[in-house]
Design a protein that fits this description.
The chain has about 240 residues and is of the alpha/beta class. It is built from eight helices and eleven strands. Helix 1 runs parallel beside helix 2 and helix 6 runs parallel beside helix 7. The protein is globular and about 50 Å long. The two termini are about 30 Å apart.
């Protein structure tokens, strides 16, 4: 097992998967999600369960299912839930996102979240390690596969939240719309003020009406290179 990460004093303890280490993108996405009112959520491609862990920590009424292709990562996700006392409200399963129709009924969930692989096949070199390659590139699950699963699994009115790369935003919106998922919120993430965005946070709604809210940009660092006030809030710094 990799070394544990304490996300903030008094907060959850997390053991990341060696093939998919804990990144800022998952923590930012968990903060972007609005779980109020959701009873059942699913983390598509959950790896060792960080998104589920953070959402369960925030939302006491929520129950999360994690779906992960690799059994070893799913087992680590179950261990992470148990070590944080969240096992009764979670189920971390080994299974293929592309087989979602055989695993769950349509409309089974109020909320879906994902931190998917960012890079399409053929866009660059991938790690020779299959697990690391799958974490970064679409070797086992494409953007189309992901949106198809979310569109099927969410009830009408349910939300799908994910983090991705800005250069794929147009493709993402097309995929979402093709599966009755209407983009409703967008937030750009920039390393520093004035820089180009490095990530996008998106919420889409199953069967939602057109209308996109663009939220204020999330800037990670101040001009002096220190963490921005919002990053400190997200990571509970100085509390």
């Amino acid at each position: 097992m990799t070394k544990e990460s304490v996300l903030w004093p008094g907060g959850p303890v997390f053991w990341p998967d060696a093939s998919a280490p804990l990144g800022t993108d998952s923590v930012l996405l968990a903060d972007f999600v609005r779980p109020a009112g959701a009873k059942r959520g699913i983390d598509l491609g959950c790896a060792s369960g960080i998104l589920s862990l953070l959402l369960l920590w925030r939302a006491p009424a929520l129950r999360m299912t994690g779906l992960e292709l690799r059994e070893d990562a799913a087992a680590l996700a179950r261990e992470n839930m148990a070590r944080n006392g969240l096992a009764p409200r979670s189920e971390m399963l080994a299974g293929d996102i592309r087989a979602h129709r055989s695993l769950f009924g349509t409309g089974s969930f109020d909320l879906a979240v994902a931190n998917p692989p960012y890079f399409p096949l053929g866009s660059g070199a991938l790690s020779p390690d299959p697990a690391r390659a799958a974490a970064r590139g679409e070797t086992d699950c494409t953007l189309q596969d992901l949106c198809a699963a979310a569109g099927y699994l969410l009830r009408t009115g349910g939300s799908f939240c994910l983090v991705h790369r800005p250069e794929r935003l147009s493709e993402l919106f097309v995929c979402l719309s093709a599966h009755a998922l209407e983009p409703k919120r967008l937030r750009l993430v920039c390393p520093r003020e004035g820089s180009a965005p490095s990530l996008v946070l998106v919420e889409a709604r199953r069967g939602g009406k057109p209308g996109l809210q663009i939220e204020p940009t999330l800037t990670l660092t101040d001009p002096d290179g220190s963490e921005s006030a919002e990053v400190k809030r997200i990571y509970h710094r100085g509390e």
